[in-house]
Design goal:
The chain is of the alpha+beta class. The protein folds into 2 domains: 76 residues, Glutaredoxin, CATH 3.40.30.10; 107 residues, Glutathione S-transferase Yfyf (Class Pi), Chain A, domain 2 (Up-down Bundle), CATH 1.20.1050.10. The chain is 48% helix and 9% strand. Strands 2-1-3-4 form a 4-stranded mixed β-sheet. Helix 1 packs across helix 8, helix 4 runs antiparallel to helix 5 and helix 4 packs parallel to helix 6. The chain is globular and about 50 Å long. The two termini are 32 Å apart.
């Protein structure tokens, strides 16, 4: 019997949780679910009240929110060294980028796919999306600078941050002119998606 069950919709933020589970060789299975439905999977909904993917059932109960799942797994599998530990002088920087990815990058990425979640007047959708992309472009430049000593956030040291970022930058839709205009972001995304664990999970997420 699997120790963890990942509730995931394909090609969503579940990719990062899925990739980390694979990276740490967890004993897990995947329950593929449908989102944006009037009849969500009851077990999934009992964990994720907003019906957002991913959610993770663990031996300690259910968890939702991508970042929370990533942090939980990093702590549960310390032998893989996917976290910067509290006693490490780089801990503050680790936390900075952890929250930046979830509270600054992710909202504007979401707007590129679902502006209708935020603006109900269809006439204003394109303008709103364009304004959001201007902000997103600034975020990309900051992240590109942060990765200049890469390939990862902490040089050659892989952390959960790298999964949380690359499973967003893999989406071509958020780079109208192509990700290669940000050389460090591009290198980072390529490095992460070439890892066996990530290649394995992407086969199930319909990424071209």
């Amino acid at each position: 019997m699997s120790e963890y069950t990942l509730y995931a919709a394909p090609n969503t933020y579940a990719m990062s949780a899925h990739a980390i589970l694979e990276e740490v060789k967890a004993n897990y299975d995947v329950k593929w679910i449908e989102i944006f439905t009037d009849k969500p999977d009851p077990k999934f909904l009992s964990i994720s009240p907003h019906c957002r993917s991913p959610a993770l059932m663990t031996p300690n109960g259910g968890i939702f929110e991508t970042g929370a799942i990533a942090m939980y797994l990093g702590e549960k599998f310390p032998e893989f060294n996917l976290l910067i530990k509290p006693e490490d002088s780089r801990r503050g920087m680790f936390l900075q980028w952890f929250y930046y990815l979830g509270t600054t990058l992710q909202p504007d990425v979401m707007i590129q796919f679902h502006p209708e979640f935020y603006v109900k007047n269809e006439k204003n959708l394109a303008e709103f999306q364009k304004a959001s992309f201007i902000r997103l472009n600034g975020v990309f430049k900051i992240l590109d600078d942060a990765l200049q000593d890469g390939p990862f956030f902490f040089g050659d040291e892989l952390t959960i941050l790298d999964f949380l970022l690359a499973t967003q930058t893999i989406w071509k839709e958020i780079f109208p002119a192509g990700i290669d205009q940000y050389k460090n972001l591009h290198r980072h995304m390529k490095t992460i998606t070439e890892r066996p664990a990530v290649r394995s999970i992407l086969k199930n997420h319909y990424i071209n």
